[in-house]
Amino acid sequence: MTFKLVVADLDGTLRANQQAFTPRLRDAVQRAQERGVRVVIATGRMYRTSAPFARDLGLSTIICDHGATIRDVPSEKILFQKTVPFDLAREVIARASDDLGVVACIAEEFYTPRISPSIEKFVDIYRDYLHIVPNLADALPGEPQKIIFINDESVTESLFVELKIHFGQVLQVVQSWRTYVELTHRDASKGNAAAWLAHRWGIPREQVIALGDQDNDRSMIEWAGLGVAMGNAIERLKTIADFVAPSVEEDGAAVVIEKFVLNSDYTTADGRPPTAEERGGHPSAVSGQVK
To answer: Which of 51, 263, 270, 272 has the CA that lies 20 to 30 A from 118?
Structure first.
């Protein structure tokens, strides 16, 4: 099979926590694009916080907000977007008790009814774009790209179940990280966004690879011709994947591109075995498990 499109999650897939892209990954992505293969990041992040990573890898298209937004990176033009309807957004935010942290992401800005240490950590260097609106449910400045509940890990799983039961028929509800539960438009998913791009570019699903590690990656891994779960992925994702790659710390995404796109598991652009540094510091990161 000749693959023409690679859609990959960012955090936990293309890069380890708070780390830069490895030389090996950069090399694999560059060579794939030189062969005419499109490479797209699909992330839960907003465009503002994810575009620098796409530019760093030289990518021209990015899927954001768990599939709610697709943008052209050079022009920053929105190609596709689905926002949460006002009535549902108000209902979701109104359900957030005083001890829950909730953020509405609207037009690349952050809105919350109250600040908390977890929310401050979440916005990090983008705190200039954070707005505190005490009566947010009644004063939304626009329809959200997504709504995020950011809380301790001890309450996140039960909160996910509760929100899934209450809103799962009308919104997409995903647990994107141990401390995040996120809600988007019901038609917004990474799988739908990947399908939209593949149709736009005339690429059949059989020629698409999708890689991820969390629950919000499930839709694109199930849809793609080759669905890949990282070695560090949650177990329920591994059970539905076609291929289980090495972990992100072992440069698993680079391994997948080399194996299925470049057909060269062990060589770099100049035809030699990659060094330990090019493997991201893991000389043995060459294996994967095929189901």
So the answer is: 51
